[in-house]
Specification:
By secondary structure, this protein is mainly β. The chain is about 0% helix and about 35% strand. It is built from no helices and 19 strands. A hairpin with a 5-residue loop joins strand 1 and strand 2. The termini are far apart.
């Protein structure tokens, strides 16, 4: 049986240890909290300080930066990026290759389209059809 963790050196020369999440085998850094019912697919990275609630899906190649919070039943599509300290509301959907900037706030149930970019610190909300609401 193989190791259940991987050590990776960051840009500052520090070695960070990532464990393979039981659902999907994605890499979860020491200090991140990922609910057991969440799925983190292989090739996804969850950095230290991240909190992922129940029934969240994090797709292959997605990157969740430090201190981000992902609400229950949210969906982070493959190759999406969630910036440092960003917050994704419960039931929200982040599209393929979408990028959510540092400190951004995505409202509950919002839909971020494929390849869409949410700026650093932006507050983002849509209705159930994906039409953008005034912030």
């Amino acid at each position: 049986m193989g190791k259940n963790y991987v050590d990776i050196e960051n840009d500052q020369g520090e070695t960070l240890r990532y464990r393979k999440h039981a659902n999907g085998r994605g890499l979860v850094a020491h200090g991140a909290k990922v609910h057991a019912s969440a799925t983190v697919e292989s090739g996804a990275y969850v950095e230290p300080g991240v909190q992922i609630a129940p029934d969240v899906f994090v797709g292959r190649g997605a990157w969740i930066e430090p201190d981000a919070v992902i609400g229950a039943r949210a969906y982070v599509a493959p190759h999406a990026h969630v910036g440092e300290g960003a917050s994704i509301g419960a039931g929200a959907h982040v599209g393929i290759r979408a990028s959510v900037g540092a400190g951004a706030r995505v409202a509950v149930g919002s839909l971020i389209g494929d390849d869409e970019t949410i700026r650093d610190g932006e507050r983002f909300a849509t209705d159930e059809r994906g039409f953008r609401l005034a912030a």
